[in-house]
Amino acid sequence: MIRTLLTVALLMTCGQALAHKPSDSYLSLELSGRSVTGQWDIALRDLELAIGLDADADRRITWGEVRQREDAITSHALSHLQVSMAGQTCTLDPVDLRIADHTDGRYAAITLRGDCPTYNPRLVLRYDLLFQRDAQHRGLLRLGWRGRVESAIFSPARRELAFDLGETRPLRVAWQYLLEGLWHVWIGLDHLLFLAGLLLPLVVRREAGGFVPAPDARTVVHEVLLVVTSFTLAHFAALSLATLGLVDLPSRWVESAVALTIVFAALNNLLPIVRRRLWLVAFGFGLIHGAGYASVLSDLGLSATSLALSLLAFNLGVEGAQIIVAALFLPAAFLLRHSRIYQYGVLIPGSLLVALIGMIWCLERMTNQSLMPW
Predict the structure, then answer these.
(1) Are both 192 and 164 inside the same structural domain?
(2) Is residue 178 part of a domain?
(3) Considering the domain boundaries, does residue 247 fall inside one?
(4) Residue 190 in contact with residue 327, Cβ under 8 Å?
(5) Whether 6 and 28 share a structural domain
(6) Could you read off the pLDDT of 244-270 as tens digits, one per residue?
(7) Residue 298's pLDDT is what?
């Protein structure tokens, strides 16, 4: 319970970026001997924050404004990327700049070409774009050589990645996406708030005559496992369908719907509409949350094997993170379920705060405008 309460409290001091889709860039490199070619897609919204693109301050970034800042864009990007073989730095030069559309907006797509002093199967990539500004930023890498494809993720804790071009290690890919699944929930405040909305009433639910505490711990554990597993299965299904291109929904509307699931889960604690089988609600909302993250994998262009491993590992990470959150929250909540402190001091104000923040997020995502002052 302490972790959940701290999470809710910290929301009031968090930055605006937490209410939106985490920042990503997409780096695709192809190696042929000593030659390096590729493309690096960086969100225009991120470049605007980093170097400024909107010259007339009309909140619309045009192609003309991007072209005017082409040198600044490419120099800024390449100053945060280094490729080396056997300790010798490879050259990387921008060849072209264009606009690419991803599911969550427009990106500057930089075409790259370079050479390494000598060929060596020991390849090291160093990436530190935007990490100082946004700890949630991720650099999503697709690396191809000799018909093989491997994916990896750069993060503030993993700014340097090493590859042995003589072998492929699928388990390393799976391990990285497992960690990303864990991290996705832990720093994804929409996930944590949604979980809080579903977990709060599992130990005590509101009825017309007051509050009804859960009868025993076994009932609570059973309900928690149903809710968490249902959410993860739906998350996996939606993420898989969207990543495979079978479902394609506008990112803004999906992100707005994610915020509405938070509002519903919180208000349902105060004015119960769904009193039983909350796992069905969790499953339905899991479909929406899964679709909200689909662009991260679908835009990478992974091979079928890498994609399957990444999807499975990522969702196992999500499941594990949710179980950890529940395990931290439930023991104290269960012990306090008969207490008026929990019923009137945690459940009611906590649900109201979660509903308020969810509604603000929804309006921000629908209008693409910041409504919070921080």
Answers:
(1) no
(2) no
(3) yes
(4) no
(5) no
(6) 667 666 666 777 787 888 888 888 777
(7) 58
User: Residues near 325 by Cβ (< 8 Å), separated by ≥ 6?
Assistant: 3, 4, 185, 192, 195, 199
Q: Beta partners for 126?
A: 82, 160
Is 338 inside a domain boundary? yes
**Residues 131, 62 share a domain:** yes
Asked if 233 and 266 sit in the same domain, the reply is yes
Evaluate the CA torsion angle 44, 50, 52, 57 in order and state its sign: positive
How far is Cα 242 from Cα 292, in angstroms, rounded to an integer? 9
Q: With contact defined as beta carbons under 8 Å apart, do 52 and 46 qualify?
A: no
Question: How many of the other CB atoms lie within 10 Å of CB of 344?
Answer: 11
Q: Same structural domain for residues 226 and 338?
A: yes
- With both helix axes pointing from N to C terminus, report the angle between 348-367 and 251-270 in degrees, rounded to the nearest 10: 160
Last residue of a domain, one of 134, 169, 204: 169
pLDDT in tens, 115-133: 999 888 889 999 999 998 8
Residues 365 and 259: beta-carbon distance below 8 Å: yes
* DSSP label at residue 130: S
Other Cβ atoms less than 10 A from the Cβ of 316: the count is 17
Helix 217-243 / helix 278-298 crossing angle, nearest 10 deg: 30
Q: Are residues 164 and 215 in the same domain?
A: no
* Domain assignment of residue 136, given as a range: 24-169
Domain co-membership, 154 together with 221: no
Contact 14, 8 (CB under 8 A): no
> Residues 261, 356: one domain?
yes
Number of neighbouring beta carbons within 10 Å of residue 273: 8
Whole-number Cα distances in Å, 56 to 228, 232, 269: 47, 44, 46
Structural contact between residues 322 and 193, judged by C-beta atoms closer than 8 angstroms: no
Q: pTM of the prediction?
A: 0.58
179 in a domain, yes or no?
no
Give tens-digit pLDDT for 50-78: 999 988 888 889 999 999 999 999 999 99
Q: Record the tokens describing residue 77, joined without a space.
A: 């990007």
How many other CB atoms sit within 10 Å of the CB of residue 295? 22
